[in-house]
Amino acid sequence: MSMAALPVHFKQKPVVIVMGVSGSGKSTVGLALARQLGLPFLDADDFHPPANVDKMSRAIPLSDEDRWPWLAALSSGMADAADRTGGVVATCSALKRCYREYLLKQVARPLMFVFLDGDRDTLYERMKQRSDHYMPVSLLDSQLATLERPHADEPAATFSVLKSIDELISEITGSLNSAE
After folding, report:
1. What is the CATH number of the domain that holds 118?
2. What CA–CA distance (Å, rounded) separates 34 from 22?
3. Does the residue 7 lie in any domain?
4. Which of 22, 61, 76, 160 has the maximal Cβ count within 10 Å?
5. Residue 104 covered by a domain
6. pLDDT category, 3, cuts 50, 70, 90?
7. Which of 72, 156, 46 minimizes the C-alpha distance to 111?
8. Beta-carbon-side half-sphere exposure of residue 35 (alpha carbons within 13 Å)
């Protein structure tokens, strides 16, 4: 685990985006974290317009033009949830720095990115085992090529996907508590 490079101080409850490429466990970790913190959970997959889901289902990588409306819908949903409850946990691949900067600006409150990091082989094996997701294994390499890992000047902490869900939740909540 690495602590957030740029400290995040939450006025109320945390606002968190669990990020990473497909197969990193964003939804599993995000839902568990939201339950642990007693916060609403938003899965970015639910904010994709049908055209994006169709493209990904046909193994066509999304372009920036495809992603901006999706990021706008997600950030609006996050801001609304945080307005209602004081905090929120969401998932989002947030592959590029410009996407993370956009989300920070649009959510308009202190926000921390939790980056779930893993090697290609591990992610590939995880994706092969999924049967209930529209994202095909063939898009993993395009996601890895697009990924811009968070830098030290971003409000992000990196965690290994090789850890158990219990270890991850413990480390992430510890990181959030130290950031408050």
Report:
1. 3.40.50.300
2. 19
3. no
4. 22
5. yes
6. very low
7. 156
8. 10
Is residue 122 situated within a structural domain?
A: yes
Q: What is the pLDDT of residue 164?
A: 93
Query: What type of residue is 78?
Result: M
Q: Residues 53-86: pLDDT tens digits?
A: 888 788 787 788 998 999 999 999 999 999 999 9
The answer to whether 174 and 157 are in contact (CB under 8 A) is no
In a domain? residue 75? yes
pLDDT tens digit sequence for 125-157: 766 665 554 555 667 777 888 889 999 999 999
Dist CA 151 CA 175 (whole Å): 17
- Please provide the distance, in angstroms rounded to a whole number, between the alpha carbons at the two ends of the chain: 18
In angstroms, the CA 92 to CA 134 distance is 15
Rounded Cα distance, 33 and 16, in Å = 9
